[in-house]
Design goal:
alpha+beta, 3-stranded mixed β-sheet, two-stranded antiparallel ribbon, 3 helices, about 30% helix, about 15% strand
C-alpha cells in the first residue's frame, strides 16, 4: 500500500481530523525486473469503479529491485507524451 501523503495532510489540516488513512491509499503495481518495458506495467493499471470517469485510482508503479523507484501517474503520462508528441525545433 502507498499512502497519498499530500491528500492525507491536506485532509488533516483543512478538515481538522486525519480521517481514514486507508481511504487515501493506493495499491501499487509492483515490478521486480528493472528492464521490464513500461508498457508491461501500464497494462496492469486499471480504472476503479466507473471507467467513464477517466480517473485511474491506483496509478502508482513500484520498481522494486536492486534500485528502487516510484513511478506516479504523472510520470507515466509525461513518458507517453514524450513518445507521442512532436518536438518543436528550438
Amino acid at each position: 500500500m502507498v499512502l497519498d501523503a499530500d491528500g492525507f495532510l491536506r485532509h488533516a489540516l483543512f478538515h481538522g481530523e486525519a480521517g481514514n488513512a486507508y481511504d487515501l491509499c493506493h495499491r501499487p503495481v509492483v515490478i521486480h525486473d528493472r528492464q521490464a518495458p513500461l508498457a508491461q506495467a501500464i497494462n496492469r493499471l486499471y480504472f476503479e469503479g466507473n471507467a467513464r470517469d477517466d480517473l485511474i485510482e491506483n496509478d502508482i508503479i513500484l520498481v522494486w529491485g536492486d534500485e528502487r523507484r516510484v513511478i506516479t501517474g504523472a510520470d507515466t503520462l509525461g513518458r507517453l507524451r514524450r513518445d507521442i508528441l512532436k518536438h518543436r525545433p528550438t
